[in-house]
Write a structure and sequence with these properties.
Distance between the termini: 52 Å
Helix content: over 70%
Largest sheet: none
Structural class: mainly alpha
Radius of gyration: 20 Å
Oligomer: single chain
Shape: globular
Number of strands: 0
């Protein structure tokens, strides 16, 4: 593969600049499409069967929505990796993600499990927070490398232990995308630092396919948006995703409750 191809300023990239704000809006819309399938169609198959007298049509529509939705997480993972690099205070960044994970948990449980408290699964904010915490702790280890006279081997072992702890934390907490999600964000973060954001995205998609199932293959189409990304922030609302995530889950739950019950 010609890695230099992604670095070339093509006509398309010049004509369609993609700041981070556009990536965020696109990812939010795709996430909503995905959750319409997961929280409405899949939860209310019987209702739609009564209306249309066909399970097959409902399931086919759901498959289309969920396939499109596979693009959302890797886009968010990419933006989290970018955020971890450019944030002024990575500790506050991780804490903010964790706080909104707590805020979003009841809406998440209601939307996907019809229960206010479902402890066998936790929302994606916790996955994002763990990944940022891993990056933060590894950065702290690098800072004390010379103060503590640590060797390169010791630092690398320490980094692997930190990453392993993060992966295990996501796995045992059963967060959305779990250990795979943490690894995908970490891979993208490392690739961005090396100036290979597109390659990082592709490797992340491969991890998703291997660890989360074949349906994740559809997330490869997100490379189009990553390729067009110009590295600029653009005009955006800092808390849009934080608010939209629990907000749209509450809305989908209310729609299901009032229209389908």
């Amino acid at each position: 593969m010609d890695f230099d191809f992604f670095k070339k300023e093509t006509y398309i990239r010049k004509r369609i600049p993609m700041p981070a704000s556009y990536l965020k809006y696109i990812a939010i819309i795709i996430m909503l499409i995905d959750h319409i399938g997961a929280a409405l169609l899949e939860r209310e198959v019987w209702f739609f069967y009564q209306k249309f007298d066909s399970y097959e049509m409902v399931l086919e529509i759901d498959e289309v929505l969920r396939s499109i939705g596979r693009i959302a997480f890797p886009l968010f993972a990419f933006m989290i990796a970018e955020g971890a690099i450019h944030t002024r205070n990575i500790k506050k960044y991780a804490v903010r993600l964790f706080i909104f994970g707590v805020i979003s948990e009841i809406p998440f449980d209601l939307a996907f499990f019809d229960k206010p408290f479902y402890f066998d699964s936790n929302n994606v904010f916790f996955t994002l927070a763990i990944a940022v915490a891993v990056i933060m702790l590894q950065s702290e280890l690098e800072k004390i490398q010379y103060e503590k006279m640590l060797s390169y081997q010791e630092v690398m072992i320490g980094k692997m232990l930190i990453l392993g702890a993060g992966v295990l934390a996501a796995y045992f907490l059963n967060t959305d995308y779990s250990a795979c999600g943490v690894l995908v964000i970490y891979v993208m973060y490392s690739a961005i630092l090396l100036g290979q954001k597109e390659i990082g995205y592709i490797v992340g998609v491969v991890l998703l396919i291997l660890m989360c199932g074949e349906i994740e293959k559809w997330s490869i189409f997100g490379i189009i948006f990553i390729y067009l990304y110009n590295g600029e922030r653009g005009k955006q609302n800092k808390y849009l995703f934080y608010i939209f995530y629990p907000g749209h889950l509450i809305l989908l739950t209310l729609i299901r409750f009032f229209l389908f019950k």
